[in-house]
UniProtKB/TrEMBL annotation:
<protein>
    <submittedName>
        <fullName>Aminoglycoside phosphotransferase family protein</fullName>
    </submittedName>
</protein>
<feature type="domain" description="Aminoglycoside phosphotransferase">
    <location>
        <begin position="142"/>
        <end position="232"/>
    </location>
</feature>
<dbReference type="Pfam" id="PF01636">
    <property type="entry name" value="APH"/>
</dbReference>
<keyword id="KW-0808">Transferase</keyword>
<dbReference type="InterPro" id="IPR002575">
    <property type="entry name" value="Aminoglycoside_PTrfase"/>
</dbReference>
<dbReference type="InterPro" id="IPR011009">
    <property type="entry name" value="Kinase-like_dom_sf"/>
</dbReference>
<dbReference type="GO" id="GO:0016740">
    <property type="term" value="F:transferase activity"/>
</dbReference>
Length: 281
């Protein structure tokens, strides 16, 4: 555990009363820290550049609507991060998770507000995609061909188009917008957290992540779900094909990660890729 006293002191948040380790996410480790002045979330950040980007983006979102994501705090020296023992940390207001699951309607309502900010956000640097399709395909294609030959053959005609979509830097995206980064609030609204993977990317990427998160298990219900999702997200009919192709991109990348880390899920990803493909035919 890091020296949380030093971190908290840098933000002048008083004395620590309680520390609770949180589930570690894709972009770092985190601790819920209760002090005599506030309850905050302390989280590791990969480096100073990402800490500054996440702070700038969160500030821009907060200026538009302070209810859609928790604020990141500045140190007493007005810095958006603190470095302790060569590790970068950022501190965020802690919002309590409500017991209810986030609804699709509330989630999209929140994200559309954030989408307005993402579309006009300007920043001089964008990180590379830490899970680009070309790198995942290069590293996992042999294993996929050997162990899931049917899925491999299914993907071969698709990869070039999906890589083209993946390389697009059309707008700023959250980059990791699964259910794990949705926060249900007591007022039945939803907040979105953890912009640590934000970068420029395909314009429908975040929508596709949410589409996957709420996709029904009953494959017979997916067509109706797609229509409802696109209506709520205001995705025009002429964009449905590229949207669905981006959903397939998201699923294929998840599949390739699963080849090494969760092989039991590869077939399920393959079935979903085929199912989504059928929606655009």
């Amino acid at each position: 555990m890091p020296d949380l006293d030093r971190i908290v002191n840098a933000y002048d948040l008083g004395q620590i009363r309680k520390v609770t380790p949180m589930t570690n996410g894709k972009s770092g480790r985190a601790w819920r820290v209760e002090t005599d002045m506030a309850t905050v979330l302390v989280k590791t950040v990969a480096d100073v550049a990402r800490a500054c980007l996440e702070f700038a983006l969160t500030q821009a979102i907060q200026a538009e609507d302070c209810d859609v994501t928790p604020a990141l705090l500045s140190t007493t020296d007005r810095q958006p991060f603190v470095t302790v023992d060569h590790q970068v940390y950022r501190v965020q207001n802690y919002w309590e998770q409500a017991a209810m699951k986030p609804s699709l309607t509330a989630t999209l309502a929140c994200y559309k507000k954030i989408r307005v900010v993402l579309d006009r956000f300007e920043y001089p640097w964008s990180p590379d995609d830490s899970h680009s399709l070309d790198r995942l395909w290069e590293s996992q294609r042999v294993s996929l061909a050997q162990n899931w030959s049917g899925i491999y053959e299914q993907l071969i005609p698709m990869i070039t188009q999906l890589e083209t979509i993946d390389h697009r830097q059309e707008t700023w995206v959250h980059g990791d917008l699964g259910r794990w980064n949705l926060l249900s609030l007591a007022n039945e609204k939803v907040a979105i957290i953890d912009f640590g993977e934000s970068r420029r990317g395909p314009r429908f990427l975040d929508f596709t992540a949410l589409f996957d998160s709420f996709m029904p298990r009953d494959k017979n219900a997916v067509k109706m779900y797609k229509d409802r999702f696109c209506d709520l997200a205001r995705i025009e009919e002429e964009d449905h094909r590229i949207f669905l192709a981006t959903v397939q991109l998201w699923l294929v990348k998840g599949m390739l990660v699963a080849v090494e880390k969760m092989p039991e899920r590869v077939q399920n990803f393959g079935d979903q890729v085929q199912l989504v493909g059928n929606l655009s035919s």
